[in-house]
Amino acid sequence: MPKYRLIALDLDGTLLNSSMKVSERNTEALRSAAAAGAHVVLATSRWFGLAKRTADRLGLDTPIICSNGAEARYPDGREVFHLPLDAEAAREIVTWGDDHGWEMFTTVGTSTYMNPRPGIIPEKLPGGLKVAERQSEHLGDADPTCVQIWQEASVREVGERFAPKYDGRVRFSFNEPVGQPHYVVITHPDSEKAKGLATVCQSLGVPAEEVIAMGDSESDLAMLSWSGLGIAMRNSPDIVRKEALTIAPSNDEDGVAWAIERFLL
Fold first, then answer.
1. Residue 1 covered by a domain
2. In the chain, how many domains are there?
């Protein structure tokens, strides 16, 4: 019996390479891990519909922790938990973003809304993604789950204008990935990958010391600390690499496969 029985994986910058794909080596390593009896849990800031595409391609049947820990669902849609975002805060922030042309993604119920872009064909968008001229107009459709805002100037304004006002009512997870645009994920105050992972592990009967967690961003820090073995990708910012127990090769060097082959198989 291997020491570790579950591996939790961030997607962007971790399992997915720069082409936003799971490499053949990573795929084979994950299949070998599952065949050895390990659970594979995705833990991502992506919304459920988009994260589910990766889970389906890998043949996973474990819960997916999505929207930065605001919800978890099995690939068939069964809900494990859902922590809705404060409706007042969501409306003010998203309305401001609409008015100022921010690059945003707003998840409401089973839909995630994005800004219009040249060349986008709405019918071909993946995983519940929809185009909206004004995302704030859809906030009454269901409980909001998550708002993601991208680009440094917009993220900085969120930190200055809204983070102090909604401190304690909303979690603002600020991220500065290496070589990628800055972004902030806005969720319920108890929403966190680490807490979501703890809930999923409890349901699967796996203690923290038998968990490997891998990530590359500030949103992954608590998850790496909570797990028995926290592994940062080589492409992570310094703050993430300093907090990890082990550094894996980058997401373009099959770092996930390296970790599975070294610590799990």
1. no
2. 2
